[in-house]
Amino acid sequence: MAETNSLQTQVLVPVLPTLEMIRPYLESIDRTHIYSNDGPLNRLFCLELAKYLEGRITPPATIVATTVSNGTIAIELALKASAKRDARYIMLPAYTFIATAHAVKNAGFEPFFLDVDEELLTITPEIVRAALSECDAPAAVIVVSPFGGPVQTSGWEQFEDETGIPVIFDCAAAITSIRSVSRQPMCISLHATKMIGVGEGGAVISTDADLIARIRQAASFGFTPDSRISEVVGGNYRLSEYAAAIGLSSLESVDGKVSLLFDKARIYRENFSGNPVRFQPGFGQDWIAMTMNVILEGARVQRVLDTLDRHRLPWRRWWSLGCHTHPAFANSARTELPVTEVVAYNTIGLPFHVEISEQEIARISRIVTDA
Ligand SMILES: *Cc1c(COP(=O)(O)O)cnc(C)c1O
To answer: Residue 72: CB within 6 Å of ligand 1?
Structure first.
């Protein structure tokens, strides 16, 4: 098997548990002969995920979690369970990973793209309220965690109470930065590139046990637990026991991964201090993610990117220039997007992962600063 280039020069390096860590769970699969269909490892993983989050939120709450086959399906199922069936549009930020927009379409709705807040890089209740005159009675709003950053649930509960418009959260990359959970469903990705990875997988969490039960049912042919009667229309969006085995090991090792990434972020922040390079609020201080973005001054962006290319250093616009710039969504409804157009252009993902060395961070920071 060909070894890839040095990990040092990659923009993101996924880290999943090693064989040794997964082995005890795999041995239990050998014993039980249960390979899927909400087996014992999946049930344990759902409980452990909920427990992990319960230990990190204020105010305290009882959380229920269910797993699904990926983060995009998590959003689709949350929309099908929560959004108003008699309305057409789902409001969501134009600045998000394109999966959010696909989930809207696949759930049977049309996206209505909104502009984002310049600091937070996502929508606020104020932005949605201001857009309601342009999109009457949306079926739901999707709030997206900006690159794994925390989202504020209290303002959105109040928004839903006052407007009657259901809210769901795309917290795909935010599992370690969730600080509050409400009844409004939060959709998580367990993709290899996310903080708790299983390869391909997802989860939905909420304090509303009935909502989670409906989503679990829709993910398994609409069957109620212990019956083979389809109560509602669904599909097969389950997680296998093998994936749950990796999930349990991933959860056991997440604290170590988080602390390593905090260290790397701190070194970047030190190297960039005093330079006109912005980070997302609290990044590397209050929260961390698998990706690291810097927000550059518009006039410098092209020069920085050319210089990175010349040094063969990888960079990414993880969320491209906005969903509306993709051909598949070019004709979707939207408001004016002046902030999205600026922040999407200026926000650049730099190499960031647990393997990156202090020397490499210093070199990359120097190259960006000098450009
Ligand atoms: C990763 C991600 C998704 C998609 O998750 P998958 O598990 O890859 O389907 C959706 N939204 C955001 C914001 C993401 O970062």
So the answer is: yes
CB of 68 closer than 6 A to ligand 1?
A: no
Please choose from 95, 170, 187, 290 the residue to mutate so as to test ligand 1's pocket, defined by most ligand atoms within 8 A of CB. Answer: 170
- pTM of the complete model: 0.97
Output the CA 141–ligand 1 centroid distance in Å: 17
Q: List the one residue out of 224, 256, 164, 190 whose CA is nearest residue 46.
A: 190
For ligand 1, atom 2, which residue shows the shortest CA distance? 172
Task: Give residue-wise pLDDT tens across range 165-217.
Answer: 999 999 999 999 999 999 999 999 999 999 999 999 999 999 999 999 999 99
Q: Which residue has 């390096």 as its token pair? A: 13
Report the residue among 16, 72, 290 best suited for mutation to probe ligand 1: largest number of ligand atoms under 8 A from its CB: 72
Please write the tens of the pLDDT for every residue from 62-84. 999 999 999 999 999 999 999 99
Q: What dihedral do alpha carbons 354, 358, 360, 364 form, nearest 10°?
A: 100
